[in-house]
Amino acid sequence: MSRIDVHHHIYPPQMYEGKYPQLRQHTDHSLTAIPALEAGGGDPSGWKTPEWTQQLDDALTSKTNIGTAIFSVTSPGAPVLEDGKKAAAAARQFNEYCAKLRDTNPSKYGFFTNLGNLVDVEPCLEEIRYSFDTLQADGVVLFTRYGRHYLGAECFKPIWAELNRRKAVVFIHPTHPYDDTKVNKHSPSPIFDFPHETTRTAADLIMANNLREFPDCKIILSHGGGTLPYLIHRIGIVADTPFKIPGKSYEDIIEDGKRFYFDLALSGSDVMLSALLEFAKPGHLLFGSDFPNAPDATIERGVGVIDRYEMSPETRKMIHHEAALALFPRLKDAYKNVK
Known about the structure:
The chain is α/β, with parallel strands linked by helices and 339 residues long. The chain has a single domain (3-335), classed as Metal-dependent hydrolases (TIM Barrel), CATH 3.20.20. 42% of the residues lie in helices and 15% in strands. The chain has helices at residues 13-17, 36-39, 54-63, 84-104, 121-133, 157-165, 189-192, 194-207, 210-213, 228-236, 250-257, 270-279, 296-308, 313-327, 332-335; strands at residues 3-9, 22-25, 31-34, 66-72, 109-113, 139-143, 145-146, 149-150, 169-173, 218-221, 261-263, 285-286. The chain starts with a strand and ends with a helix. Mean pLDDT is 89; it is low at 18-34. One of its GO terms (biological process) is secondary metabolic process.
């Protein structure tokens, strides 16, 4: 059964080849171009930037029966460049590269548009307009935080308002925590901290009432929602405390948690699938691989667990592509004969 992969990373060549015009000055005052990723100091999480080529991508999608990959530039993406103008320029180049690749085979490829630093609101709004109106992006990717601000912060309201106006699909991907102290050398942020960062920003969106204020945004949480399905009832307890939000009950918090969509990247275990199938609304679970950041062996093992897990044919079909088709209706013709 063909799958639509909503958690599928891409590393445009500008990140490797120095085509993005970052310049390093040497002691002899000469200048050389360096890659955007290196210019920003590398991935702050410490995770090694994986190799990405279209050939490697096609090989993985063939092995795992992925019919469509929705690309996202993350880990770390354009915001790693602290200069706002440079981050916005990098995001524009990444998006144009993704759009050109999408245009080579629109049923096989799609992309979430990349933005600069969300704190720089106006350049981000400009990129949203360009990406949706000109490049025809399938949605937008946001990180779990920008500086000290998680996504429910008041300063991001204009961005959410524009995305809501466009009824946008919003893919939220974690980044390293603000305090990136490692427990030990065997606990890299992407494995240990990312799920908690997803939960932090999801809880922030719930407490800020974003899901009700901007109800037309379809928000996908990475990696099965981090720890949200497990902790949502604990988060709801805030309604019984002095920290409660006026007018927001325990039941309201649980319901807001169910408004999210959840991808299954790195979620291929019986325990996680059981929790997600019980918690998520029908049609709110989506397939995700986390290629190429996750090793191929990890992806294939997770896919195997999902394929073996007992569920109805209707639920399996919904996870593989039907739920995604509701979010990306342009793909419906390509899947009309898929069983």
